[in-house]
């Protein structure tokens, strides 16, 4: 299969995360165009990609997902998973890595449509991503970067057990803004609420080679075959 990521699926009590097909992409674009990702004038993401008309942002979401599929390889991969609630997409959970076999480090990023925020979905989808990273792929570290005024994302990091890992100052809309870095080790994950949460991995073996992960790299995990 040209894109083995399509066989991968993560499930939690409420959610399903998977690589979106053509119909899913259309539904995601319509969702973003209809609801938006954040309030007008806010700038929660690096690069300012979400600060545009809803139709433009919808197109950028599709470009992000297509680019991840087209360019991913063992030395660099960008896994964009659509997040589904009751069978309908509500957002995207991303997971990226460079030189994963050597570094064992992944970074996460995500967004939810405005109509689905404030319901604990962001925490639940992150727990699924962390289970994939640590239990599925055998990662040693997971990282996250959040602007200092990103209250919801900061709350998720703290709740799941990430630790502060320094700051950077970025130019955001012409103003210097602090970007906070967060890190979690595998040992910290094993003791965190994220490891206790119910999340299952399906179809991972079909795409291990793409991620640069081997079965014996991973600790015991709640996994099921595709």
From TrEMBL:
<dbReference type="InterPro" id="IPR016181">
    <property type="entry name" value="Acyl_CoA_acyltransferase"/>
</dbReference>
<dbReference type="GO" id="GO:0016747">
    <property type="term" value="F:acyltransferase activity, transferring groups other than amino-acyl groups"/>
</dbReference>
<feature type="domain" description="N-acetyltransferase">
    <location>
        <begin position="15"/>
        <end position="187"/>
    </location>
</feature>
<dbReference type="Pfam" id="PF13302">
    <property type="entry name" value="Acetyltransf_3"/>
</dbReference>
<protein>
    <recommendedName>
        <fullName>N-acetyltransferase domain-containing protein</fullName>
    </recommendedName>
</protein>
<dbReference type="InterPro" id="IPR000182">
    <property type="entry name" value="GNAT_dom"/>
</dbReference>
């Amino acid at each position: 299969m040209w894109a083995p990521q399509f066989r991968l699926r993560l499930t939690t009590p409420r959610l399903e995360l998977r690589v979106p097909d053509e119909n899913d992409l259309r539904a995601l674009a319509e969702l973003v165009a209809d609801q938006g990702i954040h309030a007008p004038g806010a700038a929660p993401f690096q690069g300012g990609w979400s600060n545009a008309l809803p139709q433009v942002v919808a197109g950028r979401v599709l470009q992000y997902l297509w680019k991840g599929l087209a360019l991913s390889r063992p030395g660099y991969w960008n896994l964009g998973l659509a997040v589904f609630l009751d069978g309908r997409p509500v957002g995207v959970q991303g997971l990226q890595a460079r030189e994963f076999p050597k570094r064992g480090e992944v970074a996460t990023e995500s967004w939810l449509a405005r109509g689905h925020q404030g319901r604990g979905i962001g925490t639940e989808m992150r727990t699924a991503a962390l289970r994939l990273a640590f239990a599925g792929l055998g990662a040693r570290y997971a990282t996250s970067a959040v602007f200092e005024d990103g209250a919801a994302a900061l709350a998720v990091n703290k709740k799941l057990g990430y630790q502060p890992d320094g700051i950077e100052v970025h130019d955001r809309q012409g103003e210097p803004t602090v970007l906070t870095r967060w890190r979690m080790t595998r040992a910290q994950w094993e003791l965190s609420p994220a490891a206790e949460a119910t999340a299952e991995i399906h179809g991972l073996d079909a795409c291990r080679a793409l991620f640069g992960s081997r079965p014996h790299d991973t600790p015991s995990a709640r996994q099921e075959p595709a």
